[in-house]
DNA sequence: TTGTACGCGTTATCAT
DNA sequence: ATGATAACGCGTACAA
């Protein structure tokens, strides 16, 4: 930079200004500086700038597992607006080991990041709160409703209620639910939506018909097995994720039954493969990429010190009717 | 840091030494410093350290599209060893827009990254070469064989040959190939493997039986359509990716034919969903996570200035036999 | 073994 | 509108 200054016959301060606050510099000198810069092929040292400004223009995204399509879609949205706004995104794949979050927290303590988006909610509320007091933080897509931390979520209760009601409208009265890990609030909310749908339609809630595991294919397979063992198995199952739904369907087929003829299924997420699965999954589509974008936008506002009028952004999921629910067949009476 | 120094009655230099070169400091003073550090709850400012050392301990991973399971698996492996070795990984999702790579190159010019792993090979060889001269660079999993840049790849030719030979061994003589984008060397190599398998088994290579698109389900669907239109359609298809295979199978079913009875299919990648697809995909499994790990290891060596005896690391893919190839049925004669 | 002092490349403050 | 200078926090050459 001092070379540039010399070459342009100005001080380093002016060079800096020409780049940072072009309006505060005479057009003529600005041109001189610019010329010098290209002549010497100078690029600013961002490290020094960061040290001076105490900011990194970098955010950290903590993700439970990149290989899950849900998270990669969110990540994709986050990355898109981050780039557009000049932020870099640091990947924090904790691979389901919650403890690893603490390692990443050091990044912040050492001022290596300006903010953070968490794609996981396993942390207790007060830890999150402490964190949020220290640095700009946004949580998505799973968060308890009463969090004071800004969140971007889908209306899990309402969406699940609609999914369940769709099955009810198809004539089902004996509906099961395969939930995700019940310590996650999204799982709890989806269960709650299922329960409300039953309630409003005068169907008794039965504990036996609710199984919980994690969000994987394997869990769906295993929980469905339990359901099939019942004296009177359900005629429809609302699954808390598409992967669960796929696992469940696989198990049903193995049992010699058909989906949706014998048992109807609705999933959640609208994961990429849900449309080519057989039968194609009826599912609740979360606008994941959009939610990722919004998370980043909220975070940026936060980092810029804007006090937001709104802290929680709630999206609604779309019911995508395909084959696994049986809506395309004759309705039952 | 100066606070720590004061608290411990030493100079800042000693504090620094106590942390960087513990052996060059008396045990007693080291303890004093450590005590002061915990007492004041001091954490070093990494930015300043980086400025001083001119290194960031950060690498950039350029990925064509995070939502693709192949890349997220690689990323997962990269991230794992990066963390372990104290590196941060910056995500560069270019979303198939090759031009965006140039934006990321600025990160390097501005010394924001120490090295780079590219999960894409669309760049011409000499651009890559130029890049590699400027900074540590590793390319995976798609790269031309003659690249001077370090690469971590799968043996595409050999693997594809084995995949094709598997179909031949099942009695097929009229085999088609649906390739990926032919400007990618991995696509070219897979086509070459297919060709060699035919050649070595005395089967004439027929241009008509080779279709190319990209690696997506949609492409597989579309290319299979062409194949089905032929007067004598193939009895087996080797697909350059699992997604292509899924699309192709979908089209075949729509046509009223069965897989593998009427047409046998082999895919490539062993993507997560390939095992629950119906029929379950026979495919070539790349050790993607391991390849990601290896890429990061090679990059670290590079960044440490080690001259590697070996620049190209070639993994072999495993043939995973499931249902889509028909091996579980009676063999044809 | 430890302290002094400089420099890494910027940017902000204060003068001019 | 511009220049001189201090400061960001650390690591290291040199001196002691």
From TrEMBL, chains A, B:
GO terms for molecular function: DNA-binding transcription factor activity; transcription cis-regulatory region binding. The lineage of its organism: Bacteria, Bacillati, Bacillota, Bacilli, Bacillales. Pfam families: LacI, Peripla_BP_3. This is DNA-binding transcriptional regulator CytR. It comes from Pullulanibacillus camelliae. Residues 1-53 form the HTH lacI-type domain. InterPro entries: HTH_LacI, LacI/GalR-like_sensor, Lambda_DNA-bd_dom_sf, Peripla_BP_I. PROSITE patterns: HTH_LACI_1, HTH_LACI_2. Keywords: DNA-binding, Transcription, Transcription regulation. The keyword Transcription applies.
């Amino acid at each position: 930079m001092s070379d540039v200054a010399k070459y342009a016959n100005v001080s380093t301060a002016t060079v800096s200004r020409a780049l940072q606050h072009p309006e505060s510099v005479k057009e003529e000198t600005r041109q001189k500086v610019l010329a010098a810069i290209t002549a010497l092929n100078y690029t600013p040292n961002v490290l020094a700038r960061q040290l001076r400004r105490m900011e990194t223009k970098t955010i950290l995204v903590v993700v439970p597992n990149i290989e899950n399509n849900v998270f990669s879609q969110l990540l994709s949205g986050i990355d898109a607006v981050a780039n557009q706004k000049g932020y870099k995104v640091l990947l924090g794949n904790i691979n389901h080991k919650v403890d690893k979050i603490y390692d990443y927290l050091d990044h912040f303590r050492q001022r290596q990041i300006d903010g953070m988006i968490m794609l996981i909610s396993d942390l207790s509320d007060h830890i999150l709160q402490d964190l949020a007091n220290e640095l700009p933080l946004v949580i998505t897509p799973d968060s308890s409703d009463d969090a004071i931390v800004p969140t971007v979520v889908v209306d899990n209760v309402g969406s699940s209620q609609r999914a369940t009601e769709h099955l009810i409208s198809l004539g089902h009265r004996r509906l099961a639910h395969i939930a995700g890990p019940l310590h996650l609030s999204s799982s709890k909310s989806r269960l709650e939506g299922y329960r409300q749908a039953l309630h409003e339609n005068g169907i008794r809630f039965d504990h036996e018909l609710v199984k919980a595991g994690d969000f994987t294919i394997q869990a769906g397979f295993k929980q469905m097995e339990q359901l099939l063992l019942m004296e009177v198995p359900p005629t429809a199952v609302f699954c808390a994720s598409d992967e669960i739904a796929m696992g469940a369907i696989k198990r049903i087929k193995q049992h010699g039954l058909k989906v949706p003829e014998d048992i109807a299924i609705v999933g959640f997420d609208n994961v990429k493969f849900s449309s080519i699965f057989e039968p194609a999954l009826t599912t609740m589509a979360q606008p994941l990429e959009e939610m990722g974008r919004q998370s980043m936008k909220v975070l940026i506002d936060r980092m810029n010190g804007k006090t937001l009028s709104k802290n929680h952004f709630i999206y609604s999921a779309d019911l995508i009717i395909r084959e696994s629910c049986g809506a395309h067949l004759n309705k039952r009476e």
